[in-house]
Specification:
By secondary structure, the protein is of the alpha/beta class. It has two domains: 56 residues, Orthogonal Bundle (Arc Repressor Mutant, subunit A), CATH 1.10.10; 186 residues, 3-Layer(aba) Sandwich (Rossmann fold). The strands form five sheets. It has a seven-stranded parallel β-sheet. The longest helix has 15 residues. The radius of gyration is 20 Å and the shape is elongated.
Length: 264
């Protein structure tokens, strides 16, 4: 065993580890730093106060800031296969007779594209891109209306919000840019945040979040839902078991999308 590290050295090692792995367990840091669990916990608390990480059940995750909204086509290039599988699994949660809100975004688009045709359901969405891609879906399909947002191919603003006030849904399926235990679900623009919050407010049933594993620990500019407001989270196989346990403690069911569509 070498010379014990001083606090600044330990915290630098923790940051270096998280920069590579994004997520860590306390026990792994104890082995890395050759120190006690109590010491590691104090270091994690200090780093969390500095906004560098977020403590989780048995470990920590690197804090990631999502400041700017990427163009829709740019986002579509990130984890396309994972998003497709997430969309398939989330679409399977929609049942006959459902009225569902679905927002904009590349993962939400995949949900819309994989809903069964000629299904007796009603969909309300601000997702212009999906409307252009799916053609005649065979189910009732409404655009919210509103001001066009070119970066996200979506609709927002007062007209969209007023129209959402005219209906209640029994499910809402939402794509987000960040999800974390501390900060909940976040998106990069106020226009989209207003629409998403209104969709949640007008839903008398399940709140379902769809996001690939890279969104875990990320925090964008505008909050739309606390972690306790979520009922189900649909993600991909890159999502860690530790994070699944964290969500389970919050009574959130995590569904893992893969070619078998196995849920946990």
């Amino acid at each position: 065993m070498g010379k014990p590290l001083i606090p600044a050295q330990r915290r630098e090692r923790i940051q270096e580890y998280l920069a590579i792995h994004q997520i860590t367990r306390t026990v792994d840091l104890c082995n890395l730093l050759e120190t006690s669990e109590a010491t590691v916990r104090r270091d994690l608390e200090w780093l969390e106060q500095k906004g560098i990480l977020e403590r989780t059940h048995g470990g920590a995750i690197l804090s990631q800031r999502v400041i700017f909204e990427q163009e829709y086509q740019q986002r579509a290039q990130h984890y396309p296969e994972e998003k497709k599988l997430i969309g398939q699994l989330a679409a399977s949660l929609i049942e006959e007779g459902d009225i569902v809100f679905i927002n904009s975004g590349t993962t939400a688009t995949q949900v819309l594209q994989h809903i069964k045709r000629d299904f007796r359901i009603t969909i309300f969405t601000n997702n212009v891109n999906a409307a252009m891609e799916i053609g005649d879906p065979g189910f009732h399909y409404y655009l919210t209306g509103g001001e066009f947002q070119p970066r996200s191919n979506s609709l927002a603003g007062r007209f969209a919000l007023d129209n959402l006030n005219l209906v209640f849904a029994n499910k809402v399926i939402l794509g987000v840019d960040g999800i974390s235990l501390k900060h909940g679900c976040t998106v990069p623009t106020n226009a989209e945040a207003e629409v998403v919050r209104r969709m949640i407010d007008r839903t008398k049933g399940q709140v379902i979040i769809v996001a690939d594993h890279s969104k875990w620990g990320a925090v964008s500019n505008f909050p739309v839902a606390d972690i306790d407001e979520i009922d189900k989270f649909v993600t991909d196989e890159g999502f860690s078991m530790e994070a699944i346990e964290d969500l389970k403690e919050k009574s959130i069911e995590t569904l893992i999308a893969n070619n078998m569509n196995i849920s946990i």
